[in-house]
């Protein structure tokens, strides 16, 4: 078997490779790909340079692959063309299974962020390959990275009472490795450890830190003003506001225990992640 993991130079791909190794896959059967390959040099597996823009490099990098973990790219606007190159190279390599990191509710989500994922899921479905869609919730890390700001300024956002399906990135990567090494019983997994709101997040931050933290619900316009006032370029602020409005619209709602079942243990909770 040869397991190929794209995005091995990023945190998710790294965690997935570490999980493959923990699951007993020999290092010699794992290959990672990325652009800045020096970032993955310490993983102890072969790493090949392959930009999603470079169809030839992808074909070479995937040669001989049995199973592919296709980690979605990080450049909205370029991703659909890039992902088409990845799918074509996977077809060329004749991989028997492709696990793709998608987004919760990709088929129906109205979030801008979901468009590339929906298009990629369709490409994979139409490709003749055997795809497994790992519809990942948001990483807790998206929020825990903001803890210092929460403690100083409180929590603010335009997500209203929208449910945020989320999980620790490491648990989502572990689930990806479980699918890659196992016999997946489904083609679509909706993956989250728990669902919280910004108000709930604020309560937990208060509880865990012991410091009273406030929550300021904002309209999209108000949130945009806060973000641009803090120095964010307009287009980035629009992107961030769009995510919150998408959450307010219920696009990250989810239920079920796909994640716990795949990883075979209770996933890390938001409280634990904040405490860490
Ligand atoms: N669920 C969530 O909350 C959430 C949050 C953020 C992102 N995501 C998605 O999940 C993916 C993995 O998460 P992450 O935390 O590891 O993201 P990340 O830190 O942005 O890393 C992205 C990875 O994708 C690779 N990549 C990006 N563009 C590429 C290209 N054109 N060609 C080849 N490789 C490319 C990067 O390679 P190099 O570093 O070598 O350039 C890196 O390995 C992201 O790419 C994004 O699609 C999900």
TrEMBL record:
SUPFAM superfamilies recorded for this chain?
Answer: NAD(P)-binding Rossmann-fold domains (SSF51735)
Q: Name one Pfam family in it.
A: NAD_binding_10
> Residues in domain NAD(P)-binding?
7-181
Q: Which InterPro entries match?
A: NAD(P)-bd_dom, NAD(P)-bd_dom_sf, NmrA-type_oxidoreductase
Q: What is this protein called?
A: NAD(P)H-binding protein
What is the species of this protein? Herbidospora solisilvae
């Amino acid at each position: 078997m040869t397991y190929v993991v794209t995005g091995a130079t990023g945190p998710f791909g790294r965690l997935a490779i570490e999980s493959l190794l923990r699951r007993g896959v020999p290092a010699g059967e794992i290959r990672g790909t990325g652009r800045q390959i020096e970032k993955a040099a310490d993983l102890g597996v072969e790493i090949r340079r392959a930009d999603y823009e470079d169809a030839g490099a992808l074909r070479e990098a995937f040669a001989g692959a049995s199973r592919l973990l296709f980690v979605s790219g990080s450049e909205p606007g370029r991703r659909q063309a890039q992902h088409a190159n990845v799918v074509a190279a996977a077809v060329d390599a004749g991989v028997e299974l492709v696990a793709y990191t998608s987004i919760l509710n990709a088929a129906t989500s109205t979030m801008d962020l979901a468009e590339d994922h929906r298009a990629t899921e369709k490409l994979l479905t139409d490709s003749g390959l055997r795809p497994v869609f790992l519809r990942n919730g948001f990483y807790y890390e998206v929020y825990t990275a903001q803890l210092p700001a929460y403690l100083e300024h409180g929590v603010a956002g335009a997500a209203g009472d929208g449910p945020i399906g989320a999980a620790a990135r490491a648990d989502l990567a572990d689930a990806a490795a479980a699918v890659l090494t196992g016999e997946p019983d489904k083609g679509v997994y909706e993956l989250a450890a728990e669902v919280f709101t910004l108000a709930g997040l604020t309560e937990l931050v208060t509880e865990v830190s012991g410091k009273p933290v406030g929550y300021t619900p904002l309209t999209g316009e108000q949130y945009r003003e806060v973000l641009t006032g803090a120095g964010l370029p307009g287009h980035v602020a629009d992107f961030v506001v769009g995510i919150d409005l998408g959450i307010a619209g219920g696009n990250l709602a989810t239920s079920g225990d796909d994640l716990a079942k795949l990883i075979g243990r209770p996933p890390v909770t938001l409280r634990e992640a904040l405490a860490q």
